[in-house]
Amino acid sequence: MREEELIAYREGVAERRAVIADHLSACEKCRAEMERIEAVL
Fold first, then answer.
1. What's the DSSP call for residue 12?
2. pLDDT tens, 1-41?
């Protein structure tokens, strides 16, 4: 997942929200990246 997609997901504007949510539930690396993004924003 690209950082831009994760930020859009966090802000609720991602077009593929369901796909990203499924990916985050399965991908530890992207979950860690999402946690990093949330800490910054």
1. T
2. 999 999 999 999 999 999 999 999 999 999 999 999 999 98
Parse the chain into domains and list their residue ranges.
3-40
Task: Let me know the angle formed at the C-alpha of 28 by 17 and 12, rounded to the nearest 5 degrees.
Answer: 20
Give the integer Cα–Cα distance in Å for 10 and 13.
Answer: 8
Our CA dihedral for 16, 21, 37, 2, rounded to 10 degrees, sits at -50
What pLDDT score does 34 carry? Answer: 98
pTM reported for the whole predicted model: 0.84
User: What is the C-alpha separation between 7 and 21, in angstroms, rounded?
Assistant: 12
Tokens representing 10? Answer: 């966090």
